[in-house]
Design brief:
Length: 167
């Protein structure tokens, strides 16, 4: 195993008319620069705390107490939109032991003020959505309206005869 770790193979593909030591050295330098950039990006990403939706483990690693709330399955998607809008760090966990399964949303306790605002908007949006008639109901209403207008409309009884050209 140690031997495999010590022996790494790097494959470079170079298009050149003539392979010289300088061309090979430049190709190796570009490869090493790219590896440094990748390592720096990974290091920076590891240091930054993740934002938005994340796993429960990532949320707990941020050293802030987490609180949770219970959300229905039908409301999870709309909650996620609002949470992204308010830049809330949260994790969704499904409790499979209950029938039907329940979903818990964990968030950091220092986000409680923004969570309060987000929940107010979430509840207002859900109430507004419940009051709004469904598309089928609106369609049925207009269908009935058009049928009633058709019944009330009378046929035009006069006929126009046009047999030839008129000047």
């Amino acid at each position: 195993m140690q031997e495999e770790v010590n022996q790494r193979v790097v494959s470079l593909c170079i298009r050149t008319a003539r392979l010289t030591a300088n061309v090979l050295a430049k190709a190796m330098m570009k490869y090493l620069e790219a590896q440094k950039r990748i390592a720096a990006d990974l290091k920076r990403k590891a240091e930054e705390p993740s934002k938005g939706k994340q796993t429960l483990k990532e949320l707990m690693e941020q050293n802030a107490g987490a609180t949770n709330i219970e959300v229905d399955k039908s409301n999870i998607r709309s909650f996620e939109r609002i949470a992204r809008k308010y830049h809330i760090d949260y994790a969704v966990k499904k409790d499979k032991t209950m029938d039907p399964p329940k979903y818990f949303v964990f968030f950091k306790s220092r986000d409680q003020d923004t969570m309060g605002l987000a929940f107010k908007e979430f509840i207002a949006k859900n109430n507004k959505k419940k009051e709004r008639p469904t598309f089928k109901q609106v369609l049925k209403k207009y269908k009935n309206l058009s049928i009633s207008q058709d019944k009330n409309r009378e046929r035009e009884k006069t006929r126009h005869k046009d047999r030839g050209q008129s000047l």
